[in-house]
Design brief:
The complex is a heterodimer of chains A (246) and B (254). Chain A has 246 residues and is an alpha/beta fold. Chain A has helices spanning 22-31, 64-72, 104-115, 119-133, 148-160, 178-193, 205-211, 229-242; strands at 2-14, 37-49, 53-57, 79-84, 88-91, 166-170, 197-201, 214-219, 222-227. In chain A, helix 3 packs across helix 5 (148-160). In chain A, 42% of the residues are buried. Chain B has helices at 6-23, 30-50, 59-86, 88-91, 100-126, 138-162, 166-180, 195-200, 202-216, 222-246, 250-253. Chain B is globular. By secondary structure, chain B is mostly helical. Chain B has one domain (4-253).
Chain lengths: 246, 254
């Protein structure tokens, strides 16, 4: 059974971003003006088996984040069929729900609960989370006093303690100093060795090559190429340097 | 999809609300005490000095019976309406159940409500009105008001994602409501033709029930309790239905 399966999935958004003021809303109703839509993803098909990891590469706005949002269950496709089996943890953004005026430990509890950790589990993991982040005594200070690297380290520590079946990582590994990055990288390798599934968006070729078995290249919402990370990255980097300035 | 711990998230969101609001104020929680007292002072001045014909006995208790539930209602509804957009960054990233946000915001306001109820009791006892056996109704009528606001906030917070003006509509409704519920006048002054409307408005029913219990020392009355219960539960149900219908489109509209 595939852990993630997409069959000709398309996702479109309204050009106005969806949110409206009353005036626009009424205009649309009264004049039956058609909403302009654009496709963030079009006819995307792929399959990820258990324990495999897939890298997604592509330029900004190619639809990578939309694809991850679909897998994370945040929104539904407009066309096509998709299936996701297992508990998903999406590191689409670090520190979701972090509030600058709360202390580090208060933010850990809030963030952990939002990510789906139980009260008991959070209490059990708390020391490990603080330890992994390397924040030390600062954990009792409001996080507005932290450096941005410290905030990210704390956020990443919470996220990796969620223990999902499928881990989705969206370019968040560029956090902290080199030592911390190495620690994160080890943690993800460990996760992979445990036979879990990984979905990975990154612009760092070494990481993609090291972590992923397959890769797809998205361009303007369509799959432009697929294959091993080496093949896809080669095609992608050749395109990026040959193409006009973006 | 999301199989976390509802009560854990809820308690964390409520705590966050409370801490964030008060941590940076030098007077902190004292503002919850001062706010209703200031309004009460102004109203008491107007209705004892300028319109003395409206003066009631134990004016402070009379006014607080109106102000405390109204303030809670207005604040909770208003902040509840904005709750989804306020937590927009979370909703864009995590599948945490969306219903938790308006509910947490309303419950967060209950912390202030508790403080204000404390003031109300202090004034009631201080005026020598004393405790009577109808006080056992108090938890029930407060609960019904919370239920009512939750229902309203669920509906308007969801609509607010689609149409951002909703929050301003809510603000205006609150302003109008201040004059249409018996806060600074008594129910007897309301023409009998529109008694029904006042009765079926849970905020007004709530105020009347409180006044009966605390200020007049009589039973809230069965019709009042029945209407309050009926309207509050109906609103909660309707709020749930609206929310369920709209929540699938939240992500795309944010």
């Amino acid at each position: 059974m595939a852990v993630i399966e997409f069959q000709q999935v398309s996702k479109c958004f309204s050009r106005t971003g969806g949110s409206k003021l009353l005036r626009v809303f009424l205009e649309e109703r009264l004049r039956k003006r058609h909403q302009e839509v654009f496709y963030a993803l079009r006819d995307v098909s792929f399959r990820v088996e258990e324990g495999e990891s897939l890298a997604i590469v592509g330029a900004n706005g190619a639809g990578k984040s939309t694809l991850l949002s679909l897998v994370a269950g945040l929104t539904r496709p407009n066309e096509g069929r998709m299936e996701v089996n297992g508990k998903v943890a999406a590191l689409l953004e670090l520190g979701t729900g972090f509030h600058p005026d709360l202390t580090g430990s208060e933010n850990v509890f809030l963030n952990a609960s939002i990510l789906g950790l139980s009260r008991k589990r959070t209490a059990e993991c708390f020391d490990a989370i603080v330890d992994f982040s390397g924040i030390g005594e600062f954990i009792h200070q409001p996080i507005r006093t932290y450096s941005s690297g410290m905030v990210m380290r704390l956020a990443f520590s919470v996220a990796i303690h969620v223990e999902p079946d499928i881990l989705i990582i969206d370019e968040v590994l560029a956090v902290g100093d080199q030592a911390f990055q190495a620690k994160c990288f080890d943690r993800i390798c460990e996760f992979k060795r445990a036979g879990k599934t990984l979905l990975f968006v990154s612009h760092v070729p070494e990481m993609v090559k090291h972590l992923c078995d397959h890769s797809i290249w998205l361009e303007h919402g369509r799959v432009k190429a697929r294959g091993t990370p080496e093949e896809v990255l080669e095609a992608y980097s050749g395109h990026a340097t040959a193409g006009p300035l973006q | 999809m999301w199989n976390g711990d509802y009560s854990f998230v809820l308690s964390n969101l409520v705590k966050k609300d409370f801490k964030v609001r008060y941590r940076n104020m030098s007077l902190g929680v004292l503002w919850s005490v001062l706010n209703p007292l200031v309004t009460m002072g102004a109203l008491a001045f107007v209705f004892t000095i300028i319109f003395p014909s409206s003066k009631q006995h134990d004016m402070a208790v009379f006014l607080l019976c109106g102000l405390v539930p109204f303030n809670f209602f207005a604040m909770a509804w208003n902040t509840g309406t904005g709750s989804l957009m306020e937590n927009y960054s979370i909703m864009k990233r995590v599948t945490v159940p969306r219903e938790l946000f308006p509910v947490a915001t309303v419950l967060g306001n209950c912390v202030h409500l508790l403080i204000q109820i404390g003031i109300l009791f202090a004034f009631t006892l201080g005026s020598g009105l004393g405790v009577n056996r109808y006080w056992i109704w108090l938890p029930y009528v407060w609960l019904m008001e919370i239920v009512f606001v939750c229902g309203l906030a669920m509906a308007t917070s969801a609509i607010n994602v689609y149409i951002r003006d909703t929050r301003y509509v809510v603000e205006s409704v609150n302003t109008v409501l201040f004059y249409f519920v018996p806060i600074f006048y008594s129910y007897d002054r309301v023409p009998p033709q529109i008694h029904g409307i006042v009765h079926y408005n849970p905020v007004a029913a709530m105020i009347l029930a409180l006044r009966n219990i605390l200020w007049s020392g009589i039973a809230p009355g069965w019709p009042l309790i029945r209407n309050l219960t009926f309207c509050s539960l109906l609103t909660l149900g309707a709020g749930f239905v609206v929310f369920r219908r709209l929540k699938a489109g939240f992500f795309d509209h944010m």
